[in-house]
Design goal:
The complex is a heterodimer of chains A (about 150) and B (about 400). Chain A has about 150 residues and is α+β, with helices and mostly antiparallel strands. Helix content of chain A is about 20%, strand content about 45%. By secondary structure, chain B is mainly α. The chains are: A alpha+beta (about 150), B mainly alpha (about 400). The complex binds copper (II) ion.
């Protein structure tokens, strides 16, 4: 093999290696930064601190389950006369929740039970809580990835 | 020289592919997890049905099986559940629309695994397997019978068995031979003329008939197929061999199904269904009455006297979450139909809620084009799939049959 031939082959090898390297970088790089998955946050207008947690274990796809939503004022005083509207869905699929969950019980200390939640698909879900209490109306949106 | 160059190129390309972990024959770890989640072996045990305390009673299931195949349970003596839900045909009938006493407007649904669903029928207008069974019995196009006729029939043919399993029969002496809320005008009048107590007694026997049939239907399960053997091998990290092998085309179809073609967003889990309702833009059949899908039956299932919140339920109200918290008014319910399981699908054309498509090729074509819905919005978006990719999807679906 002549030296030009060897150089051509070598160059191809290098290119292939570079492609391989790029492929590794590309495929192992974290996907586009996901949604904010915080389960405690300040409501949009800043009236409330809102925290959510599944009542028992982390929800599984297709299971009807409950969440506990804890609402306090920014100063940390439990809010005990709140009413809720609950919405949401899958932003990437442009559909809403498969059920219509409701706040069914006040458990004290600003804690409310939300029954009837279901995630029928895996993927990115949003839960939007409209909260109305004597302090005022506000809302908070949470992201979940199943 | 040329030959060595080619060899080096191929080796380099293979190396690059191997380093990226995505050679054609390999699935990524995420794909492997998804595939494992679709294997029949990943199916959880059948949950109890506390609303039917006879659900796992063998005597009730045996009586239910007898009734399921008994043509005596119909007005003309010719129709049983098994007439449409054929035991050797995946409990369906290969017709675009089921035919009982007359032709219905929907396709007969296969029944394997049905006990796992929260709602029944294409539009989900019943919320339990036992309340579902009562509908065809009184539907004038299906069994076309009446409640008192069924109660009399049970007493005459199965009285002793019934009482051993359920409870003493109510006093049926002197009750009309055929009366019920959905019969002929004369039968409806006869039903109204009965006392509340008489009607309640008959309704209880009627609900028990449904509970027996439901107990039987709980035994209908999916059989594992080549896809399951493949998925199990993949999960174990062993090379699929023998009757666990998928061809390259079938693997390509599987990769599309859980990837670019988005099928597994709805056809998910071991049963290939999310148990929910979707508008997928399936066109109506010309000449049939307007069919609006789930939105049209929201009130019906909530008002059904045999639903979970009614007095025929066993156990506590905590079992009624699906009904209490069902979606009641969303625009997404317009022309939304239940996602069918795809197990065994290649062996039971035609497809969709009224048998709209004759072949799997037509089904795939429907998803590729994603035509607009006649009413409401389809959730399907057009797909870019080559002819080879379409064929691969169909080839994959066939692995759910053998
Ligand atoms: Cu979705």
């Amino acid at each position: 093999m002549g030296s030009t031939g060897r150089m051509v082959v070598g160059a191809f090898g290098l290119v292939a290696l570079a492609v391989g390297f790029l492929a590794v970088v590309f495929l192992t790089a974290p996907a586009a930064p996901g949604p904010d998955l915080a389960r405690a946050k300040t409501s949009v207008k800043g009236l409330y601190s809102v925290a959510i947690a599944p009542e028992t274990s982390e929800p599984r796809q297709g299971d009807l389950h409950s969440w506990i939503v804890t609402v306090t004022t920014r100063q940390g005083t439990p809010v005990d006369n709140a009413s809720f509207t609950i919405g949401g869905g899958m932003p990437e699929h442009a559909h809403g929740l498969p059920t219509s969950p409701e706040a069914t019980a006040y458990l004290g200390d600003g804690r409310y039970r939300i029954e009837g939640m279901k995630f029928s698909m895996t993927g990115w879900w949003q839960l939007k809580f409209g909260i109305t209490a004597p302090v005022g109306a506000d809302e908070a949106t949470f992201n979940l990835v199943l | 020289m040329k030959g060595r160059l080619l060899t080096k190129l191929i080796a380099a390309a293979a190396l690059a592919a191997a380093m990226a972990g995505c050679s054609d024959a390999d699935f990524t770890d995420a794909e492997k997890r998804t595939i494992a989640s679709m294997a029949l072996s990943a199916l959880a045990p059948l949950p109890a049905d506390p609303t039917n305390r006879f659900a796992d009673n063998p005597g009730a299931a045996a009586l239910g099986a007898t009734l399921f195949f008994d043509t005596g349970m119909s007005r003309d003596g010719n129709v049983a559940c098994g007439t449409c839900h054929k035991i050797d045909r995946q409990f369906q009938d290969d017709l675009p629309r089921g035919i009982g006493v007359a032709q219905t407007n929907r396709r007969t649904m296969p029944l394997a695994g049905v006990a796992r669903d929260p709602f029944f029928f294409w539009d989900g207008r019943r919320d339990s397997l036992w309340s579902q069974a009562l509908v065809p019995l009184e539907n004038p196009l299906e069994h076309a019978g009446t409640r008192t006729s069924y109660a009399h029939y049970i007493k005459r043919r199965f009285g002793e068995r019934y009482e051993r399993i359920f409870r003493p029969l109510p006093d049926l002496d002197g009750l009309p031979t055929s009366a019920g809320p959905f019969g002929t005008p004369a039968e409806q009048a006869a039903w109204r003329a009965m006392t509340v107590q008489q009607r309640d007694g008959v309704d209880l026997v009627f609900a028990d008939i449904g509970k027996a049939m439901a107990a039987f239907e709980r035994s209908l399960v999916h059989a594992p197929t080549r896809f399951d053997r493949f998925a199990d091998a993949l999960a174990k990290g062993t090379a699929p061999a023998g009757d666990a092998v998928l061809s390259e085309e079938e693997e390509a179809g599987l990769r599309l199904f859980i990837g670019k073609a988005n099928c597994s967003t709805c056809h998910t889990g071991p049963r290939f269904t999310d148990n929910h309702f979707h508008n997928t833009g399936v066109p109506p059949v010309a000449g049939l009455p307007v069919d609006r899908g789930r939105i049209a039956v929201v009130d019906e299932v909530r008002a059904d006297p045999f639903n979970c919140l009614g007095k025929f339920r066993d156990g506590g109200e905590e079992a009624c979450g699906e009904l209490r918290f069902m979606q009641k008014s969303s625009p997404e319910l317009v022309r939304a139909y239940k996602t069918p399981s795809l197990r065994g699908v290649a062996d039971r054309p035609p497809y969709m809620h009224a048998g709209q498509f004759a072949t799997l090729e037509q089904v795939v074509d429907h998803y590729v084009r994603a035509q607009a819905s006649v009413e409401g919005e389809t959730e399907i978006h057009p797909l870019q799939l080559s002819d080879r990719e379409r064929a691969a999807l169909v080839a994959f679906l066939k692995t759910l049959s053998d």
